[in-house]
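Entry for the shared binder. Reason: the reviewer on the internal report wants the predicted structure included alongside the sequence.
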Amino acid sequence: MTPDGHAAPAVAQPVTRATVDVPRLRRLLGTPELEWLVERVRGRLVAGQPLAGAVCLAAPTPGQRSAVERLLARPPGGGRSLTVRLEAVDAVLRRSGTSPDGLAAAVTALTGPVTPLARIRAEEDAAWDRAHAPLDALVRDRPELADWAARVRDDGLARRLGRTPDSVHTLLTGVRAALRVLPADPAVSLAAFAARVLGSAHALDDGTPHATLTLSGIRALTGFADGSGVEWRREAWASAGLLKDELSSTVLTLNLRGTPALDWTADEGEPAVLTLRQLLRRPPSTASPVVRICENPAVLAAAADALGPACPPLICLQGQPSAAALALLRHLHGKGSALQYHGDFDWGGLRIAGALLRRVTWRPWRYTAADYRAALAGSDSRLEPRPLTGVPTRTPWDPDLAEALTEAGIRVEEERELDLLLSDLRGRP
């Protein structure tokens, strides 16, 4: 009986050649004319179906009809098709002593052991469960990756990349080793990290299965936005402190001081672009009590135009925080600077702000629910409101902000707040 109370299907039991008169069986059931019948029976055994009822063959040949007649010792009947009851075949095999254990044992002796399809599928499912076990271990290490791990399992990404259970297990074991120690702080070379953690400097090269899955997990860790292309991948790796090189990651600044080059640009009131290489080798030696951060270059350019050398220190992320930006902000925060952030009032802007907050402590710079509502109220009525799009996100620095955006459904770009932000930078209310 099965667990639900139904009769268990007849399934071939292990047999030995000694229980079956194989030469006689081949003459009786193993002829080419009865091959179709043997295949039908084996198909039922594989499917876990009982060997009962009739099987039919459309348009049989005279030889196939004669073979059934010899097997059953009676005419198989007329008609265009040929019908054979499996119980009758089983009875013949048992009575004759050709196969004392019946039809299932006979077919097994002729064609080899039969593994029911349900067992095959159960074994395959168990193998794939074992293959994905490193994901479960990773979630125990990093609970914040639980949703990502579930997606990888459900959408079959690792299965498509690895193809076999053993390969997938090896792949996910490496991905777990990488993600459990990311983000890297301080930032390190991507190749050096791959060599140390995965045993090969090329394990995280573009296009490798390890790179595809690890980069997907990094986006779940850091909130890095969707994208494509070489530059996007470089910045996505950098968001987790993994550097493809030290020169491609940069940050845009205005009126920072603490190196000869920065002092010169601050005296001129001109923006400066700092590379990660510069920041790792010679970071600013001084830090202002307050450093403001904006999302868009237009804000920094306007501040340079309007205020020049009089503008207080300002850093622009230009979208997702780069490795260079994170290195600079952490350095300034470590030297005592209070960081204040402003960005776009839309889901993308809030996601950038959240990603930054997970890496560096900052306070909002006119970036709260009250500021958003004030921006809506003060918007130029001649400008068409821009509807909010994208996937909502949380705003841990002010939970009411996400609710306010959801309620209003309107985005407000940072540039539309330019006059207010410049007023703050001038030091006037």
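Summary line for the report: Residues 1-18 have pLDDT under 50 and may be disordered.
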